[in-house]
Amino acid sequence: MKNRINISTLEDHVRYHISNYWAEHCGSSTGHVEMPNGYALMKDIDGDFYWVKKDGTSSASYGSDDMAKRSAEVDAMGSCKW
Question: What is residue 51's three-state secondary structure?
Answer without folding.
Answer: strand
